[in-house]
Amino acid sequence: MLAIIFLAYGFALLRLGISGADGFGAARLADADRTRNAAIVAGLVLVLTGLVDLLLAGDFDFYRGTHSALIVAVANMLSLPLIA
What we know:
Keywords: Membrane, Plasmid, Transmembrane, Transmembrane helix. By secondary structure, the protein is mostly helical.
C-alpha cells in the first residue's frame, strides 16, 4: 500500500511539474521555475522510492530478502544525486 501511495504522489507531482509553471498559483512569479523543478525532483524521488519498495517486497516474497541489501545500496546511490 505504501508503494502505491508513493507512486501516486510521485506521478501527480511529475504531472504537475511537467505541465509548466502555471500550475503553481501560490508561488511567486520569480520562483515559479524553481518550484516546478523542485516538484519534478520530488516526484522522481517518490517514484524511485515506490519502485524500491516494490522491489524489496518482491525480493522478500520470492527470495526471502537475500538481495535486499544490494537493492537498498543501489537505490541509495541513485537517489543521493537527486536529493543533493
